């Protein structure tokens, strides 16, 4: 959006949230290589540089969204996060788990700081994202023919041992990770970087690079990322085939419908609990069956045993996430919660439902093509992925939700206005040019 359409001019060339975003992207996309060489050079402290910047972003979020915008939603969300951190500490009973939970939540505030910002204006950040796409693709293809030196390299974090480059196999097929820490991370960054880069590229570029990206993700064996990228590519070509004036409205409608993916696990649980979806095989349907019977249900079963009130209040930040898995006495109750919305509800409880309703309403007034596209993609992607690791996964989701704290959303929610009435006329939206 042009600066004349804002209350005050904003320079986003090297803003704090952009710096934090780029640091997280670079660190997580090349985590395998960075962890290895940071350890070799005794520069482990550099691994935490994005987190140091993210701490400042917490203060920036409070200033911009709570104080400047006067957003009651921002104030309540900040308060709920603090309460949930305390509940998580009480539930997990570990100071180390609390510190890990606090660190886990830092990227959330970086994403929220993009409220009132149009991502198309962050040209330097987008260049870094584009470079990340090309390098990630190169890393995947390189790792197909050359064994990376960081594969299997182990390191300690908060006293827990991890691998900088995990060597995974899927049904006798190696999962290639490239420069990332594991194959899932590599696939995720190809997906997100492609989405953010494709918005300003021509249709031939999108088709060619889309095909290359899908093939590279195929080498990581990440079926979810590969399927989501294909869906995004089809949706993008459909939107671009429409008359110019209908593209933004159509994209917004697709994004709104993508929230229906929240209901997919519930429907699958009702229809297929206890059903053998993969007799005699351990392919895609076996993985889905495990999620239906275990990943999506067991957290609530264990929570009803350990802390019944947690079904409503949540069991706090870090529960049924890696702080519980690595640093708590409740490790035996940990299960991978392979869905962002289920995993977040388990931690925050019913207040998260209210927050998501407000996020859904705020989508009606979003004019940033980047944010709409990212929400569309991440909603589908997180059906089978928790997306709290790497940290950039949570950051990207928060970035897509950030307009719930914007000046426009605050006027609508606290002033009783209608979302559609807050939308500027279509010709004034420079973001529309991004999809054509």
From TrEMBL:
Transmembrane domains' residue ranges: 12-33, 45-62, 74-92, 98-116, 128-146, 176-195, 202-219, 225-242, 254-275, 295-320, 340-360, 380-401
Protein's UniProt keywords contain Iron: no
Record keywords, A-Z: Membrane, Transmembrane, Transmembrane helix
Keyword RNA-binding attached: no
Domain of life: Bacteria
Protein name from the UniProt record: Uncharacterized protein
Source organism (scientific name): Bradyrhizobium barranii
Lineage of origin: Bacteria, Pseudomonadati, Pseudomonadota, Alphaproteobacteria, Hyphomicrobiales
